[in-house]
Write a structure and sequence with these properties.
By secondary structure, the protein is mainly α. The protein has five helices and two strands; from the N terminus they run H-H-E-E-H-H-H.
Amino acid sequence: MYIKEFSIKTGLSIDTLRYYEEEKLLIPARNDKNYRVYTEEDYCWVQLLLKMKQTSMTLANIKEFAKLQKLGDESLPERIRILDEHLEELFQQQTNLMETITFVSEKMASYQRKVVI
């Protein structure tokens, strides 16, 4: 599919797709007219890329992961390491978030007990 269709499918602007290409995060194939041609594999990669971004993976780690992915299966151990480290960070964020939710809930409950209706 061409860039406009890919933009619609991914929900990303054409400018964002071009930026990702500039940053070597996304490298679509080109046809004989030099138009970008995106594949289902590109779509799957963008979905992972967006999840990495959404979960605050550093740009450096995302770029490293993208570089490794292009190497194929030989880079699987290193990609697993990057994802494992990121997963540990996510679990820590989850723990911190749960502690914050508990704290705020308890504070709200203490305020509600003081409110006279």
